[in-house]
Automatic annotation (TrEMBL):
Keywords: DNA recombination. The keyword Glycosyltransferase does not apply. It comes from Gemmata massiliana. Residues 177-330 form the Tyr recombinase domain. One of its GO terms (molecular function) is DNA binding. This is Tyr recombinase domain-containing protein. GO terms for biological process: DNA integration; DNA recombination. Gene3D superfamilies: Intergrase catalytic core (1.10.443.10).
Length: 355
DNA sequence: ATGCACCGTGCGCCAACGTC
DNA sequence: GACGTTGGCGCACGGTGCAT
């Protein structure tokens, strides 16, 4: 196992010069492994194959490894240290983030083996695993329900008189936000979907939205309720001039003519929809911590699913169906999609005894 | 002219979801 | 399961427009 000092120097020189060592060695340090991994990911990021946000997370987990193991520690020497790393991570974060960190850390060491920086794959030990499904389930059960009630949705869409400081104020979403809320509960649109809706995907005459998701190429089709069409028309009539050339196709723009959701190259995401939606919920007195715009999508999925036509729900939501059945299935008839949309609308518009 | 509330923007960090 | 993407939320800063 003795390493020739000559070989070691060659590796050190390579590292110093920012090169990947030409000599395979079992003397790889944690710091070198992490640096090499991050360099590779940085290249992917610069090629546009990786979001800067994910890169930022990789930086974070490699930082945890270096901090826990020590940068000069040899990868080869690691034994039950991963249990320590897990324990330290669990102190910092909840089960979901802990699970993410474990997955990403494993991918760092897997990278080391696959690139030949390491001779052997790493033994992480029996404890270095993601939290059990049951732990995650219990964690999720402790979170607030990601659903809105019909009365809450009607308040957002139709407006509601709220008693403020002595006087009554009528609170209602503005046309843009109203259109987005309706897209959320009518079509299962999320923040990104609303911000990215293009003029070509929207057919107000036919009252349909029809497009291919840019990422997956999955077709997404959705029949629009009359109130959704009305809100979209209103938003279009007040649509500001797009501030940037790349936003000319967007249906919905902020008052300053920019997109509602923007990603910067530093991994930061600006989400005006989430901000405005949160303000509306507070003004209506129905704000619950942890329940935001995305809960509209949950609501559509849940209520739409109760129409017992999951295939139609999936098509409206833009989900892919991984099963083989999808390969053989004929295109979904519009009538099925209309049935789901009507089902959700009836639920929303029908007063129940408790409401 | 000055003060200030409001709102958009920039960002960090936690959490969860989606695809292969 | 591995790998990748998106949502939620809180905080700080700075421009804008309105009241004083």
């Amino acid at each position: 196992m003795e390493r020739g000092s000559e070989e070691y120097k060659k590796v050190a020189d390579d590292l110093h010069a920012g090169r990947t060592p030409r000599v395979k060695t079992d003397g790889l340090t944690i710091a070198h492994l992490c640096n090499s991994f991050l360099t590779a990911k940085l290249r992917k990021k610069e090629a546009g194959e990786l979001t800067s946000r994910l890169f930022w997370e990789y930086q974070e987990v490699t930082g945890l490894s270096v901090g826990t193991f020590g940068g000069t520690r040899l990868v080869e020497d690691l034994a039950d240290d991963f249990a320590d790393l897990r324990a330290r991570t669990a102190e910092k974060w909840g089960p979901v983030r802990l699970g993410n960190a474990i997955t990403r850390t494993k991918s760092v060491f897997k990278y080391g083996y696959e690139t030949g920086l390491m001779e052997r794959s790493t033994r992480f030990g029996p404890e270095f695993k993601k939290p059990d499904k049951s732990v995650l389930r219990r964690h999720r059960a402790g979170r607030p329900s990601q659903m809105f009630e019909p009365g809450e949705l009607r308040a957002m869409i139709d407006g509601k008189a709220v008693v403020g400081r002595g006087d009554e104020v009528f609170v209602r979403a503005d046309p843009n936000l109203r259109a987005m809320i309706l897209l959320g509960v009518n079509c299962g649109f999320g923040n990104m979907d609303c911000a990215g809706l293009t003029l070509s995907a929207l057919d107000p005459e036919r009252a349909w939205i029809d497009f291919l998701r840019p990422k997956t190429g999955i077709a997404r089709r959705c029949p629009l309720w009359p109130e959704t069409v009305a809100a979209l028309r209103e938003a279009l009539s007040g649509r500001p001039e797009p501030a940037n050339e790349q936003d000319t196709q967007r249906v919905l723009l902020t008052v300053r003519g920019s997109a509602f959701v923007i990603h910067t190259d530093t991994g930061f995401r600006k989400d005006v929809i989430g901000i405005q939606f949160g303000k509306l919920l507070k003004a209506l007195g129905i704000h619950r911590s942890g329940v935001g715009f995305y809960a509209l999508r949950h609501t559509f999925e849940t209520i739409g699913g109760s129409a017992k036509d999951q295939v139609a729900v999936d098509l409206i939501m833009g989900h892919t169906d991984p099963s083989m059945a999808a390969v053989y299935r004929e295109p979904v008839d519009d009538a099925h999609l209309l049935a789901v949309a009507d089902h959700v609308r009836n639920w929303l518009r029908t007063d129940r005894a408790s409401a």
